[in-house]
Structures are given as structure tokens and as C-alpha cells.
């Protein structure tokens, strides 16, 4: 269980075009999904936190108008890179948190809600 | 602010050697979680372990072991009798408790481990 998929696994596009990446939780419902970006030989950096039915929360320095996030259902979040440029070329990874694992009451203060990672999408902008 | 430091950028050893990957973290919270992930060349993150701040017991899983020391804010990872298949980038990560459930992960810079035959 707890499988997260991403589509596409890789994409090559021309500069100036927009690219949409999908993140799906296949066997569980996720109120929260996270989007990370990883440049070559670097660490994963959180871009934004996506909550189902509400606006995403972006990390400092991430342009919300350039990286559009939509979390329309409990199993799908999308990241659209608008007007992509070569510097946007990166490995984009999403993770999803299992709604069913949400602890209640006092347990919420102690428990961790497991994040499950997708396989990543490699974006190359020419 | 949270911070995770993996000082070793790259490590190269010969197969069957033991190797330890260091991880030092900074957090102001008293409740937090520490993780190790493996990232093989395919790019997919493989979860290895999660440890909460109240549990300082060391853990062993096969050839893998973890040493959590709150006094030095370290969470080191040791591979015993390394194998070529262990070659990957290893990330240490930290997540702070969030009542509303934010629980964002902060990753270290990663250590690229190469096991030579």
C-alpha cells in the first residue's frame, strides 16, 4: 500500500511553454501533498505544501505565479510550470500524506503522519 | 530554524568495508522526527528509518544501524560489510511536530556513497 505515482516520469519541452506534472496517491487519500525540487547533485528543497480544496502554501523564494499548484481531490495534485525556462530544468518530486493515518486528540501532538514519495519527474527545458 | 548538515559530500570505500554517514541537526522544538532516505540513480527516494526525539535507542536492521545522540544532535548511519548495491546518495532529514500537520521535511545536502568492488 501507500503508493504515490507521478506523471510524466520525464518531459522535455521548449523554453516558454508550460508543463503540467501530476501526483497521485493510488491507494490512499491525501489531504496534504508536498512538492520538492532537486537540482543535479543537490538536495531536495520544499517548494510548496498543497492542501486539498485550498490554496497551496509556497516556501520563501518560490514564485507562486510560475509554479501553479492545484489539489482538486484527495488523490491528485498537479504542478504546472508556466513559461518554463532552462533554469527550471530539475527533478520534481511529490509526496503525499495519508489521511487515514491522521492521529486524533492528544496523539496528534506526538504522532508523525507518514509522507510517501513519488518516483519523481525529470524536466528538461531546451 | 531547522537545519540538517551532512558534512560528507562523497564517500568511496571498497566492498565489505564498514562506513558511517554523519548527520547533525538543529531544531528549537522538543518534539521532532529524524529520517534517513536512500536515493539510487533512478531518483526515487527509498525510506530507511524514522526516529522520534523521545526515542534515543539505537536501531539495527540487518547491515544497517543508526546511532541517535540528542546530546550532540547527531543521527549517524552505519552500513556494515558494505555492498556495491549500497551505492547511492543518502539523505538525512528532519521534521518538526506540527499541530496542524504541516510537518515539513528539511533535508541535508546528501552524501554520495560509492562502494567499489
Number of helices of chain A: 0
Strand content of chain B: over 45%
Distance from first to last alpha carbon of chain A = 37 Å
**Which stretches of chain A of 5+ consecutive residues score pLDDT under 50?**
103-110
What oligomeric state do the depicted chains represent? heterodimer
The structure class of chain B reads mainly beta
Order of helices and strands of chain B: EEEEEEEEEEEE
Strand content of chain A: over 45%
Low-confidence stretches of chain B: none
Please write the string of helix (H) and strand (E) elements of chain A. Answer: EEEEEEEEEEE
Report the biggest beta sheet of chain B as strand number plus sense, adding barrel if it closes: 6 strands, mixed
Mean pLDDT level of chain A: 88
Please state the CA-atom Rg of chain A, rounded to the nearest Å: 15 Å
Biggest interface and residues each: A-B, 26 and 24 residues
Largest sheet of chain A: 7 strands, mixed
Number of strands of chain B: 12
Report the radius of gyration of chain B as a whole number of Å: 14 Å
Amino acid at each position: 500500500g501507500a503508493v504515490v505515482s507521478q506523471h510524466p516520469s520525464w518531459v522535455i519541452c521548449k523554453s516558454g511553454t508550460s508543463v503540467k506534472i501530476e501526483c497521485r496517491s493510488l491507494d490512499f487519500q491525501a489531504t496534504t501533498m508536498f512538492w520538492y525540487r532537486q537540482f543535479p547533485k543537490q538536495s531536495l528543497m520544499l517548494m510548496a505544501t498543497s492542501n486539498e480544496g485550498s490554496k497551496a502554501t509556497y516556501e520563501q523564494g518560490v514564485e507562486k505565479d510560475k509554479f501553479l499548484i492545484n489539489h482538486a481531490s484527495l488523490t491528485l495534485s498537479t504542478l504546472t510550470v508556466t513559461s518554463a525556462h532552462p533554469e527550471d530544468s530539475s527533478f520534481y518530486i511529490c509526496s503525499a500524506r495519508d489521511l487515514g493515518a491522521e492521529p486524533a486528540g492528544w496523539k496528534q501532538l506526538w504522532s508523525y503522519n507518514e509522507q510517501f514519495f513519488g518516483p519523481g519527474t525529470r524536466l528538461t527545458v531546451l | 530554524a531547522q537545519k540538517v548538515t551532512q558534512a560528507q559530500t562523497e564517500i568511496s570505500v571498497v566492498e565489505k568495508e564498514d562506513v558511517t554517514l554523519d548527520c547533525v541537526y538543529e531544531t528549537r522544538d522538543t518534539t521532532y522526527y529524524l529520517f534517513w532516505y536512500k536515493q539510487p540513480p533512478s531518483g526515487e527516494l527509498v525510506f530507511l528509518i524514522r526516529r522520534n526525539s523521545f526515542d534515543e535507542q539505537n536501531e539495527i536492521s540487518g547491515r544497517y544501524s543508526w546511532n541517535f545522540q540528542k546530546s550532540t544532535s547527531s543521527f549517524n548511519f552505519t552500513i556494515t560489510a558494505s555492498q556495491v548495491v549500497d551505492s547511492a546518495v543518502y539523505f538525512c532529514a528532519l521534521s518538526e511536530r506540527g499541530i496542524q500537520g504541516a510537518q515539513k521535511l528539511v533535508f541535508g545536502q546528501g552524501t554520495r556513497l560509492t562502494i567499489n568492488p
